[in-house]
């Protein structure tokens, strides 16, 4: 039996969730509901099967990357459209009670798995790092910074799929 499972955010009790970042916690308790209603984002939660507690969350939104934001060596492999189709991981957080249990990589693997099976074209996954720890997390998982925004990252889907295989989830 798997220790965690994921599902769309529904009537889950979010009051006890604490990521250690006030912005993530405030968004998850108050802002995410409006984003879901407006269809700005879909929110997924990772649930611990033994305790039924929320271990983490992430949101996905449609996104694009301007070609001018990508490194030059990537451009020669892409069609000459002005933008590249992408998905943004807008928020990603792990409850502090699950620190050290690889919840962050599990959340990322779950997002990659969802996107790999999505019936829409996705060339890359993007993420905006909320702080230096988040930036280090994304870089450790092969995300590269955009040219003019060093705390905004992208990961080509091809690389993401290889990463998913290596995480082994």
Model description:
The protein is α+β, with helices and mostly antiparallel strands and 169 residues long. The protein is 32% helix and 29% strand. Strands 1-2-3-4-5-7-6 form a seven-stranded mixed sheet, sandwiched between helices. Helix 3 crosses helix 5 (157-167). The protein is globular, with a radius of gyration of 16 Å. The mean pLDDT is 91.
Task: Name a few traits of the molecule.
7 strands, 169 residues, globular, alpha+beta, 5 helices, single chain
Rg, Å, rounded = 16 Å
Mean residue pLDDT:
91
The number of distinct β-strands equals: 7
Count up the helices: 5
Structural class: alpha+beta
What is the end-to-end distance? 13 Å
SSE order: EHEEHEHEHEEH
Give the oligomeric state.
Answer: single chain
The helix content is 25-40%
Low-confidence spans: none
The percentage of residues in β strands lies in 25-35%
What's the arrangement of strands in the largest beta sheet?
1-2-3-4-5-7-6
Layout of secondary structure:
Elements: E1 4-8, H1 22-37, E2 42-48, E3 54-66, H2 72-75, E4 83-94, H3 103-116, E5 124-128, H4 132-140, E6 144-145, E7 152-156, H5 157-167
Parallel strand pairs: 4-5
Antiparallel strand pairs: 1-2, 2-3, 3-4, 5-7, 6-7
Helix pairs in contact: 3-5
How do you describe this structure in short?
32% of the residues lie in helices and 29% in strands. By secondary structure, it is of the alpha+beta class. It is globular and about 50 Å long.
């Amino acid at each position: 039996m798997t220790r965690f499972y994921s599902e769309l955010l529904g009537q889950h009790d979010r009051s006890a969730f604490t990521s250690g970042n006030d912005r993530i916690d405030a968004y998850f308790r108050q802002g995410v509901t409006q984003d879901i209603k407006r269809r700005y984002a879909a929110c997924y939660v990772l649930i611990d099967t033994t305790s039924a507690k929320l271990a983490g969350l992430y949101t996905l939104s449609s996104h694009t990357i301007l070609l001018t934001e990508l490194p030059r060596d990537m451009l020669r492999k892409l069609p000459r459209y002005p933008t590249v189709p992408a998905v943004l991981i807008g928020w990603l957080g792990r409850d502090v009670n699950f620190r050290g249990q690889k919840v962050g990589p599990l959340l990322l693997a779950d997002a990659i798995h969802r996107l790999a099976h999505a019936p829409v074209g996705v060339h890359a996954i993007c993420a905006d790092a909320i702080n230096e720890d988040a930036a280090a997390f994304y870089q450790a998982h092969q995300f590269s910074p955009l040219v003019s925004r060093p705390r905004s990252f992208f990961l080509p889907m091809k690389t993401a799929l290889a990463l998913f295989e290596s995480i082994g989830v």
